Amino acid sequence: MMMHVSVTVNTADLSDLDLRQMSQLGIDFVDFGNGQSFKGVKEQGYPDLDELLKLKKRVRSYGLDINRVTLPNISRSFMDGVDGSEQELENSLNAVRVFGEAGIKIVRQRFEGDVFYGRGQSYEAIQRGGAIARGESIGLLKEKTETPGQEELQNWWKSFQRAYREIVPLAQDHDVNVAMHPSDTPHPDSPFGGIGLNRIIDDFPNKNVGFVYCIGTRAEAGGSSLIMDEINHFGRKGRIFLVHFRNVRGSLPTAGAFEEALLDDGDLNMFKILLELRKVGYSGCLNPDHVPTFAGDVADLHDSWKYSNIGWKPSSLGFAYSVGYIKALLNALNEFEGR
Predict the structure, then answer these.
(1) Are 250 and 259 in contact (CB under 8 A)?
(2) d(Cα 157, Cα 236) in Å, to the nearest integer?
(3) In the 3-class helix/strand/coil scheme, how is the chain assigned residue by residue?
(4) Looking at residue 275, what is its pLDDT?
(5) What pLDDT shows up at residue 339?
(6) 280 burial class (0-12, 13-18, 19+ CB within 10 angstroms)?
(7) How far apart are the C-alpha atoms of 186 and 97, rounded to whole Å?
(8) What confidence score (pLDDT) does residue 1 get?
């Protein structure tokens, strides 16, 4: 069973140049990271099926396909039980139906509040040859925001459960996997940290409930040994649906800081991680998420991840380098195993 390569885009308005370059690089699939970007969401709260099918047909015409999509966001209003916010969940349920009818197999739901902002300070990490990456330090930020208390976190989790109790069975009915991304940055007590990821599959022991397993985010929480343990733990349960395949330097427990890095230039041995993924039978996509910015690149930046190139842009040297590196690792893996 082969693994494949995907890239994240944060818009549904893909140009011919986008798709042509993806095809030329040998990318197999597209992951849509912004659930608000699909046509129909602004008008009716969820994607329009006809427009989605047109997009899928166009992506396929370049030899690619859609791998993972994102549901419309669930905001703090829903998590706090504000009157009228139930419509957000209804929009997500309608989106599951639409994506299921379109034959798309992986959806992600975002929940506002799973990340604690104001706990670390982002900075511009200058790396090899002046490449720009995202760094974050606990020590540099002297005045930190307060984290939620236990009762507040328990109430937040109840709202998460309330949403998943409707999303999960509907996804099962439509043969769709529901994938959660770990809390990024993984500050202590974050709902989707190491303990929270286990809680998800304890609360929802359905085979179509699992993860967008982000190697970078989890390495920030504990380095290489944690990554290997979690891939073994979740992978042999068949709960890893997509892998964000990226490298970092340092971690919050060891250095009080971390920096995102090029695939060949961080603390992690990416080939060993690939071997562990193969060992547990993973056959999904490897996505070079949060790519450092090369000279001349136009980065897809977001205020929440300053200095981090989070989405595909045409003519991005960082993405081209990362895709080529992953494809070389996959070829080496097949040769290593004598396939």
Answers:
(1) yes
(2) 26
(3) CCCEEEEEECCCCCCHHHHHHHHHHCCCEEEECCHHHCCCHHHHCCCCHHHHHHHHHHHHCCCCEEEEEECCCECHHHHCCCCCCHHHHHHHHHHHHHHHHCCCCEEECCECCCCCCCCCEEEEEECHHHCEEEEEECCCCCCCCCCCCHHHHHHHHHHHHHHHHHHHHHHHHCCCEEEECCCCCCCCCCCCCHHHHHHHHHHCCCCCEEEEEEHHHHHHHHHHHHHHHHHHHHHCCCCEEEEECCEEECCHHHHCEEEEECCCCCCCCHHHHHHHHHHCCCCCEEECCCECECCCCCCCCCHHHCCCECCCCCCCHHHHHHHHHHHHHHHHHHHHCCC
(4) 96
(5) 67
(6) middle
(7) 31
(8) 72
Q: What is the pLDDT of residue 235?
A: 98
Q: What is the mean pLDDT of each run of 10 residues along the chain (339 residues)?
A: 94 96 98 95 96 98 98 96 95 98 98 95 95 96 94 98 98 98 96 97 97 98 97 98 98 97 97 97 96 88 77 92 97 86
Task: Characterise 89 by phi-psi region: left (phi > 0), alpha (psi -120 to 50), beta (else).
Answer: alpha
> Two tokens at 180?
């959660």
- Count CA atoms closer than 13 A to 73's CA, side-chain side: 11
Q: Is the pTM of this model over 0.90?
A: yes
- Total Cβ atoms within 10 A of residue 269: 14
Say what the pLDDT of residue 271 is: 97
Q: Which two tokens stand for residue 278?
A: 């193969």
What's CA 14's distance to the chain center, in Å?
Answer: 19
C-alpha distances (whole Å) from 200 to each of 4, 195, 235, 282, 306 are: 26, 9, 15, 20, 29
